[in-house]
Amino acid sequence: MTAIEKQDTISTSPIDHLLSLANEDMRAVDAIIIKRMQSSVGMIPDLAEHLVGAGGKRLRPLLTIASAHLCEYEGKAHHKLAASVEFIHSATLLHDDVVDISDKRRGKKTANLIWGNAPSILVGDFLFARAFNLMVETVSMGALEILSTASSVIAEGEVQQLAALRDVEMSVKTYLEIIGAKTAALFAAAAEVSAILAKSSPKKRKALQTYGQELGIAFQLIDDALDYGGFEMSLGKSIGDDFHEGKMTFPVIHAYKTAIETRDEIAVDFWRRVITDHDQRDVDLQNAITLLQKTDALEASLTAARTHAQRAIKALHPFKTGPWKTALVDLATFVVDRVH
Fold first, then answer.
1. Are 70 and 324 in contact (CB under 8 A)?
2. What pLDDT is attached to residue 232?
């Protein structure tokens, strides 16, 4: 059994329940992923397996599967689209790790650290190509439009984030635009694309798109807070990665804005030095965490995430009550509550 064939074992009932409901479907999705990431060029499946087979939350393909059942879709094309979604996500991770100079992903050394930057970028391109192969095979122009558009939006979000690197004056509005593109866009597409296959009403299609978008924003808000170790949860990456890269995320934006409003010159100078000037010392991460705690920045992130999670839940109103709707409601709650 390869690593990819082993289902995620997150000991939280909402995820376990969703995985249980989708077990047969996810086995089919995994089979497609294993088959399509093969190549006669040995480095490609080796590098792809290192990332794709490392586990992960599998939330995005799960959204495609769950949404298909919610829309009462009876075909099999959603399996290929779910695999396509996972390939898109994996490709962006490979590219992100090169851009961010990351050395840890899902608790393992990153592919770029083992094989180098060029192979990681090229295998990421291979996975993108495989994703589009699968989209075309479903013979659904609507599905192709949704996922191809999402791929473009993700790339734009990543470039926008790169352009805004070390901008200590970044607004919450700009931050939400960035995570809405680089993270939430794929959540939204993963949820909406099944409605196209099922020929659901525009109302239900929009409902799933909104659910995915709001869920993705909530997810990223929590991940950004977790980067500062503010909650009791183990991450598969190093604490403080965003800080060391000079990324402005919600907690830092909140803390910096509070420092400006309260005229805390020491805190203002600190954030400008470590973010804008990128002049960081060994003690600065702990100092940053102290300032985030002092300004309740991490709790503010949690509050914002809960707001978006509730919007996701509200968006599911057009669908009748049943096990799949319940699972998606519970998933939105879990995305926020996983920090405890």
1. yes
2. 44
How confident is the model at residue 296, as a pLDDT? 95
Cβ neighbours for 253, distance < 8 A, ≥ 6 positions apart: 170, 171, 172, 175
**Tokens 């409601």 belong to residue:** 329
Question: For residue 195, what are its two tokens?
Answer: 């409605």
267: which residues sit within 8 A by CB, 6+ positions away? 255, 256, 258, 259, 291
Question: How many other C-beta atoms lie within 10 A of the C-beta of residue 162?
Answer: 12
- Give yes or no for a contact between 131 and 88, defined as CB atoms under 8 angstroms apart: yes
Inter-CA distances, 249 with 192, 207, 293, 309, Å? 27, 28, 15, 18
Structure tokens at 239: 């604490």
Average pLDDT per block of 10 residues along the chain, 340 residues long = 39 73 94 95 93 78 97 96 96 91 78 93 96 96 96 96 94 97 98 97 98 97 86 58 94 98 97 97 95 95 97 97 95 83
Whole-number pLDDT of residue 233: 46
Cα separation of 48 and 94, whole Å?
A: 9
Q: Is 272 exposed, middle or buried (0-12, 13-18, 19+ CB in 10 A)?
A: middle
Model pLDDT, residue 52: 82
HSE, side-chain direction, 13 A CA sphere, residue 113:
12
pLDDT for the residue numbered 238: 66
Count Cβ atoms below 10 Å from residue 233 Cβ, excluding itself.
Answer: 12
Cα gap 105→2, rounded to integer Å: 18
CA dist., res. 68 & res. 75, Å (int): 9
pTM (predicted TM-score): 0.92
Provide long-range contacts, Cβ within 8 A and 24+ apart, for 155-160: 156/181, 157/181, 157/182, 157/183, 157/185, 158/92, 158/95, 158/96, 158/99, 158/182
Return the pLDDT at 103. Answer: 78
Closest CA to 36 of 26, 45, 28, 27: 45
| pLDDT at res. 192 | 98
How long, in residues, is the chain? 340
* Tokens read off for 3: 């690593």
